[in-house]
Write a structure and sequence with these properties.
- By secondary structure, this protein is mainly β.
- It has 2 domains: 125 residues, Diaminopimelate Epimerase, Chain A, domain 1 (Roll); 144 residues, Diaminopimelate Epimerase, Chain A, domain 1 (Roll), CATH 3.10.310.
- The protein contains 4 helices and 19 strands.
- The chain has a 19-stranded mixed sheet that branches.
- The two termini are 17 Å apart.
- Bound molecules: the ligand N[C@@H](CCC[C@H](N)C(=O)O)C(=O)O.
- The site of the ligand N[C@@H](CCC[C@H](N)C(=O)O)C(=O)O has 21 residues, from α2 and α4.
């Protein structure tokens, strides 16, 4: 099967984007994995599929697969690339787009400098919304939020860490660290991602507060490993930081791949806004075997 694709990146979080507006590609999990493979495929953290409007009032359907081939609910950096992609290919002429994700409808605003502002929806903090199995755990209250104890025991780690949790449609755990560059993301990331208290696994954020309006963040993503940036992770980390009383309502998030601006009022009834870059890297085509072992 011969597939045309566009390679894009948003703050270094990279994507293979597929146009399915004129028909679905017959892709299975193994195909998404092959496209994401940095040796045998194109290489990407996520594969984004652009599908036609599924309902009146919605412009497109936005489908996301992680590098491990699993379909997921939300991808913030990808949402900005999605908006730039549909505009640059003439699939729309609108500056504001409403797109359907597995997590619900999100709104994308193309802004003048080539960036995109995304209304990422409301954050949720109740354990059931991630889901997080909080049975028998006592949270540590802080500000208007809380941190949950998480016992990590494996590969030389045996300690209880306290994490804030948030859903941005997809699940996030956020660990506060003193110096994110020294955080042991490679060891702790997989332990948090696959912790049995998160039955659908979780994206693990490592958050360093620089001041009340600036943070550094690294994210070990569910199904992709550490990425250079995670948009929904930035939204979740800032929302948790605001709830814990550590951050103002507008925060610059410095990631290894670039800077994102996150804004949230602190009221759970309000949505979180994320602004950042979206860049096309190259276009190409790839021959994928029809049969690939799952
Ligand atoms: N890179 C993303 C998040 C992609 C999905 C995530 N790995 C998950 O499994 O939930 C972003 O920019 O938000």
């Amino acid at each position: 099967m011969h597939i045309r694709f566009t390679k894009m990146q948003g703050a270094g979080n990279d994507f293979v984007v597929l146009d399915e507006t004129r028909g679905r590609l017959p892709l299975r999990r193994a195909h998404y994995r092959r496209l994401a493979d940095r040796h045998f495929g194109v290489g990407a953290d996520q594969i984004l599929s652009v599908r036609p409007s599924p309902a009146p009032g919605i412009d497109f359907e936005y489908v996301i697969h992680n590098a491990d081939g699993g379909q997921v609910q939300q991808c913030g950096n990808g949402a900005r690339c999605f908006a730039r992609y549909v505009r640059s290919r003439g699939l729309t002429h609108q500056d504001v787009l409403r797109v359907q994700t597995l997590a619900g409808v999100i709104e994308l605003h193309l802004v003048a400098d080539g960036g995109v502002r995304v209304d990422m929806g409301r954050p949720a903090f109740a354990p059931a919304r991630l889901p997080f199995d909080a049975a028998g755990l006592r949270p540590l209250p802080q500000g208007s939020g809380e941190k949950w104890p998480l016992a990590l025991e494996d590969k030389g780690v045996d300690a209880i860490f306290h994490v804030a949790i948030a859903s941005m449609g997809n699940p996030h755990a956020v660990l506060l660290v003193d110096d994110v560059e020294r955080a042991d993301v490679a060891r702790l990331g997989p332990l948090i991602e696959g912790h049995p208290r998160f039955p659908e696994r979780v994206n693990a954020g490592f958050l360093q507060i620089l001041d009340r309006a600036q943070v550094r963040l690294r994210v070990y993503e569910r199904g992709a490993g550490e990425t250079l940036a995670c948009g929904s992770g930035a939204c979740a980390a800032v929302a948790c930081g605001i709830r814990l009383g550590l951050l103002e309502r507008q925060v610059q998030v410095h990631t290894r791949g670039g800077r994102l601006e996150i804004a949230w009022s602190g009221d759970p009834a309000d949505t979180v806004f994320m602004t950042g870059p979206a860049v096309t890297v190259f276009e190409g085509s790839i021959e994928l075997p029809d049969e690939l072992p799952d």
